[in-house]
Design a protein that fits this description.
Length: 199
């Protein structure tokens, strides 16, 4: 745990990841809602609904040490004001992480316990990846924070095992890219997305 009065670096990163996601969502125009995204079979609207209605509330529960219900249905959030809604709905998540002890022990998938810090790492990674998804889907020229992508890639390289990849699995096969490719290209490729994807 960081020294008293010194914020843990992971908290700064998750706040930056949330801020970046807010900016990306706020830049989406209503007429772009039905565009496809690099997430196979997911439109912009569906991904935003998923972020607002399922990811944010479940991430708050996770940050507080609880067990989220990932089987809950996504809410629908209309076509306008997505950035404002994300900003409002993410505030409890920021507060939860500011209050958290990242070294506390929490249940892990499959049994056992691990540090709460791993949940922060997962959230940073997911926000970074979905920010790229939405920015690419809506042709945004926003410069995404490369440190978030590098952090998410380093964490997920330790967590994403081969048995989670392939047809019918949560993740596609890794897409080959060069080691000097931009950070978000490498992150996207690691999660089975084509870095050159276009709508």
């Amino acid at each position: 745990m960081a020294d008293k009065g010194t914020p843990d670096p992971a908290i700064d990163l998750i706040e930056r990841a949330i801020s970046q996601m807010t900016d990306v969502i706020a830049a989406i125009r209503p007429e772009q809602a039905e565009l496809p995204t690099p997430c196979a079979a997911w439109s912009v609207r569906r991904l935003v609904d998923h972020l607002l209605g399922q990811i944010l509330p479940n991430f708050v529960i996770s940050a507080q040490g609880g067990t989220p219900d990932w089987q809950s249905s996504d809410e629908k959030f209309g076509d306008v004001g997505w950035g404002d809604q994300f900003n409002t709905r993410s505030a409890p998540l920021i507060e939860a992480w500011r209050m958290a002890d990242l070294d506390s022990r929490v249940p892990t998938p499959g049994g056992g316990e691990g540090p709460l810090r791993a949940r922060a790492d997962q959230q940073i990674t997911e926000f970074a990846m979905h920010a790229w998804d939405l920015a690419r889907a809506t042709d945004q020229q926003l410069e995404l924070d490369p440190e978030l992508a590098e952090y998410g890639l380093a964490w997920s390289k330790k967590m994403l095992r081969p048995e989670f990849r392939g047809e019918g699995k949560a993740f596609g096969l890794e897409v080959p890219v060069t080691g000097d490719a931009p950070a978000y290209d490498r992150l996207a490729a690691w999660f089975g997305r084509d870095p050159q994807w276009k709508p």
